[in-house]
Every structure is written in structure tokens, then in C-alpha cells.
Amino acid sequence: MKQSCKALQTNNTDTQEAIDQIHDDLDDYKHKLDRELGIMHDICDALTINNQLTNGDEENLSD
Fold this sequence. Notes:
With 63 residues, the protein is an all-alpha fold. The protein has one domain. Helices cover 90% and strands 0% of the residues. The protein has 3 helices and no strands. The longest helix has 42 residues, at 13-54. It is rod-shaped, with a radius of gyration of 24 Å.
């Protein structure tokens, strides 16, 4: 399979350009996904800290 990919890449520059564009798009998507996962991680951390601060403290919960 690797040989057929190499043959395809050397015979067709349009295919190489398409492959390069797919790689670029995947890199962009990965960066966006990493950023979103980081935000979700931060939110989970904040909720965990908030839960630990108010856990068992009914006075804080009623405020």
C-alpha cells in the first residue's frame, strides 16, 4: 500500500496538493479541538474546586 501511495503522489501533483490541504485542515482542527478540550478541563477544575469549597456547607449553598 505504501508503494501505491508513493506512485500516486509522484504521478499526480493535484493529489499531493489535496493531501497537503487535508493535512493542513487536520492540523487546524486538532488545534481547535485542543483549545476546546483545554477550556472544558478548566471548567471542570473550577467546578471541582467550587464543589470542594461548598461541600457540606449549607450556609454557602443557601446564599
